[in-house]
Input
Amino acid sequence: MTSLKGLFTRKTKGVGIELTPDRVNVARLKKKGQGFQLINLASAEVPEGIFQEGQIVDFAAMAEIIQSVLAESKLKVRNAATAIPSGRDTVTRIIPVPAELDDRELREMVLNQEAGLYLPFPREEADVDYQKLGFFVDEDGIEKVQVLLVATRKEVTDSYLETFRQAGLVVNVLEISSFALIRTIRQQLRQFTPQEAAAIVDIEFESTEISIVVDGIPQFSRTVPIGTYQVQTALSRAMNLPPSRNTELLQGMTVPVTPLDSMSTAAPKPGGTNPGTAAMLRVLGELADELRRSIDFYHNQGENTEVAQLLLAGPGGAIGQLDEFFSQRLSLPASQVDPISALTLEVDQDIPPAQRVGLGVVLGLGLREAW
Output
């Protein structure tokens, strides 16, 4: 997924652009000393029907929004890094291959033999890339190398490239969004030992991406079709409000957390809460159940590392006390990610804590284009 052209030559650096079903987010970063400075951060709404279920449906309309955000921010750039959201059109797997293969043989084996075994769509319909990880000795005493395999459906890759072409931009880097988020919080992930896993819970507009990470490498990922829109819709319906795609209201909400009976894993009883809060709790309870299933599935895959903590990211991660709610439901420590602090990023503008949680992906993309 990564374009390596111009890797060792000076080229014009651009911006990180994140496309989501409800917003286009843009970030431009500049290297400053040992860290980075946020030069530009901008965002624009995406109307319904342009981006659905992880796919750009209307290239021209999305390209127009990208152009308008750049123009309003007075950003004259030609290059961008962007990301495809994880989901049914993406695959990330760690696969073992014989250690004695040279680079050419490894490439042939991974791309043309192994890849097809792990894809839910035909190999010829996929764009595939890979990265070598560490060596290990398997149970038969044979030395192997772990390879991180990444694939997307070719039509999705092409739709991104075409959208950016129509916006007058060249895509330097096209990756999967969870990789951009991991890049942003890499320092935070270093607090965990190689014997501990962290579950990154990225709550986006239409879905939640669950990535279980060990040593900064995603070992397991799953996309659940519950996001801020589903929470917002349940809330609006219960309060007899008109349906809305604007989920900013959620960032001001707080999940009521009540002490659980020590023997019970049931949801906190919404006694005394208003109908909107009760509806919100039901949807978040479903998400907690999906999280538990994902972690259990990961643990049941053999000798897997114990999950030590939940890290909440994405716009939905900003809901007040959601970390405590999940922690209580899953008996695991949980905390909301602050990408600005994670990167020790120097910022000139005031970015409220509720907005910061959702910046992980776009800042990770901005890092790829930092100048």
The two ends are 21 Å apart (CA to CA). The longest strand covers residues 126-137. Confidence is low (pLDDT under 50) at residues 1-10, 261-272. Residues 236 and 242 are 6 Å apart (CA to CA).
